[in-house]
Amino acid sequence: MNRYLDLDYIRKPTRRFRRRTLLVVLLAVLLLAGGVFALSRIGFFQSLLAPVSFIVNLGKPASLQEVEGRVNALILGLDTRGGGGLMNTDTILVGSISMVGEDPALISIPRDFWTNLAPYGYARINVAYSYGRTQKDGTFDEEKGIAFAKSKVEEILGIRIPYWVLVDFEGFKEIIDTLGGVEICVERAFDDYSYPVPGRESDPVISRRYEHLRFEAGCQVMDGETALKYARSRSGTGGEGSDFARMRRQQKVIFAVKDKVLSLNLLLDIGKLNKLYRQFSSAVQTNAGLGEIKRGLEIANLLTDLDQIKSLVLDPESGLVYHPDSSLFGGAYVLVPQGGNFDKIHAAVRKLFFGEETTEGGSQP
């Protein structure tokens, strides 16, 4: 299992952020994966500061695992709050690009997508990694968790996904503190009156289970704990309570970390360099190898127009899923596929990737 150390990897599929979505799909997954930075600590930061020139001088490229002429990668963002070994993947993205550097696309699956996680039964898609990771003897197996989550995403989308990136946002807290904080520009002020307090999930006094968060508008320097709360808040006022608002905030934090790293002359501070290397290594993982990274770079160089990146979000606005009566699901908010199966989703994915028009039930995996 390789470690992936660059942070430029995740963007919400809106036009505002599309210019950097290419970096999500390629640089994070294929170009700057852990195999490059495992070569040496100095090599890690040299490649972070000058990734293209560093990778070009590496060994021969390896063949990428392609699916119908495309490279597909799953990006999972972990939320490790709640204890008990639970590790939900509340950010689920699939990036894809053709082998000739054309038609880059990004698919977002909301964490509330309700699906069959056999043999465990029906549940939200965001628990698939945790279910697969937890073994019968009480131990945990990361690779089995990733494999199980990936298999369920493949079922939903009707495609095969060879590559994956796993990110633990909890690790960003230590990274940000090591960097001395990061600057985040908050677009609009908001409150969250029910932010969970770690360790108090079962407090008999319900009010003690939560704390009140307040974020003012404007640019400000946040320490690790504050930045993590900003990224994780789920019940914000003023439109900040949606999954997609939360994804935007997570992206802000990730790019703020990247910008701070690039602004520091870390090669003159070996102690901090070593510390950050360890923190990055434990926070992000991928299965992309060094040769695949080199080949991915060659594909990236073929791209000419980042504004052409296409996106698909499996939300009610897409017409592919809907929110059923919550009373049927124990009061939980969930999203289920239209028609009770994935046929329409499969057709939409093939149209996104290949421009194909298929009749319902006629999409191909």
From TrEMBL:
<protein>
    <submittedName>
        <fullName>LytR family transcriptional regulator</fullName>
    </submittedName>
</protein>
<dbReference type="InterPro" id="IPR050922">
    <property type="entry name" value="LytR/CpsA/Psr_CW_biosynth"/>
</dbReference>
<comment type="similarity">
    <text>Belongs to the LytR/CpsA/Psr (LCP) family.</text>
</comment>
<dbReference type="InterPro" id="IPR004474">
    <property type="entry name" value="LytR_CpsA_psr"/>
</dbReference>
<feature type="domain" description="Cell envelope-related transcriptional attenuator">
    <location>
        <begin position="88"/>
        <end position="261"/>
    </location>
</feature>
<dbReference type="Pfam" id="PF03816">
    <property type="entry name" value="LytR_cpsA_psr"/>
</dbReference>
